[in-house]
From TrEMBL:
Residues 1-49 are annotated as: Disordered. Residues 51-227 form the AAA domain. Residues 23-32 have a biased composition (Basic and acidic residues). It comes from the Bacteria. This is ParA family protein. Gene3D superfamilies: P-loop containing nucleotide triphosphate hydrolases. Signal peptide: none annotated. It holds the Pfam family AAA_31.
């Protein structure tokens, strides 16, 4: 009998990035562990008060916005009411849901800086039933400067969200790629932090700094803040590099690492152009199934 040749990523033929249906690791996580069984969540009997989850990483381009949109949409499939908060002046979350930020008259900025602003005037429905949006645009960049002189500046976002928590089951805050005052606001009002981590070594280097910031927020502003988990994103199972990075993350953080792994695929840029999540754009794709698994893991933690 011929001995099977061991898999060598350097000698395997390249597969087109769009072919995300060829994941040979579907029954395992990428560290080789058997995937933990995550049961289907029971449908909710009522809504609220919401659990606030900050999606944060000071490194840009790691999939924060993509994960916020698609996790939110996946949660609605399990009957949860979800509010997405675009807390980045670039407004990428708003754009990813088909909203043109420069056309908006009221945004999250107005809720932070204007006492008379009404939350209902800013919240917008999305194309996904059960998922709403607090949009943002470049105006939010001024808030970071203006809040410096405000009393209780770290709690500005918490005060704005407090008015609507009873309507939702989960609030997902898409943080900007920095550890400035806006991100501190998100961490100060959050119950938990979800950390998207691109599977590359440069992303690994920034995690320690983020963990240090979370510890400081926990000590000084929000003692109940917890790390919900680390989500491996932009994973390419064909390359040794990304598998090694994921292995190191699992060795360092253990069960904090979600079993759900988000593969690189052309589907995600397509969804941005379409202005809708992958769960509706390509509902049977591996990307959609990965975010459904992530939603089940989030609800189970």
């Amino acid at each position: 009998m011929t001995t099977p040749r061991p898999f060598d990523p350097r000698s395997e033929p390249l597969i087109d990035e769009a072919d995300d249906e060829t994941d040979r690791y579907s029954h395992l996580d990428i560290a080789g562990r058997r995937r933990r069984s995550v049961p289907e969540p029971a449908p909710p009997t009522s809504h609220g008060p919401a659990r606030v989850i900050a999606v944060a990483n000071q490194k840009g381009g790691v999939g924060k916005t993509t994960s916020t949109i698609n996790l939110g949409a996946a949660l609605t499939e399990y009957g949860r009411r979800v509010l997405l908060v675009d807390f980045d002046p670039q407004g990428a979350l708003s754009v990813g849901l088909g909203v043109q930020p420069h056309h908006l008259e009221t945004t999250i900025y107005n809720l932070l800086m204007e006492r008379g602003a009404e939350t209902d005037e800013v919240i917008r429905p999305t194309s996904v039933e059960g998922m709403d949006l607090l949009p943002s645009n470049i105006d939010l960049s001024a808030a970071e400067v203006q809040l410096v002189s405000e009393v209780g500046r770290e709690q500005a976002l918490g005060r704005a969200l407090k008015r609507v928590l009873d309507r939702y089951d989960v609030v997902l805050v898409d943080c900007q790629p920095s550890l400035g005052l806006l991100t501190i606001n998100a961490l100060a009002c959050a119950d938990a932090v979800l950390i998207p981590l691109a599977c590359e070594f440069f992303s690994l280097r920034g995690v320690a700094l983020l963990m240090d910031t979370i510890d400081k927020v926990r000590e000084r502003l929000n003692p109940d803040l917890e790390i919900l988990g680390i989500l491996a994103t932009m994973f390419d199972p064909r390359t040794l590099h990304t598998r090694e990075v994921h292995q190191r993350v699992v060795e360092a953080f253990g069960d904090l690492v979600f079993d759900a792994v988000i593969n690189r695929t052309i589907r995600f840029p397509e969804t941005t152009v379409a202005g809708e999540p992958i769960t509706t754009w390509a509902p049977t794709s591996n990307g959609a199934e990965s975010y459904r698994l992530l939603a089940r893991e989030v609800l189970a933690r």
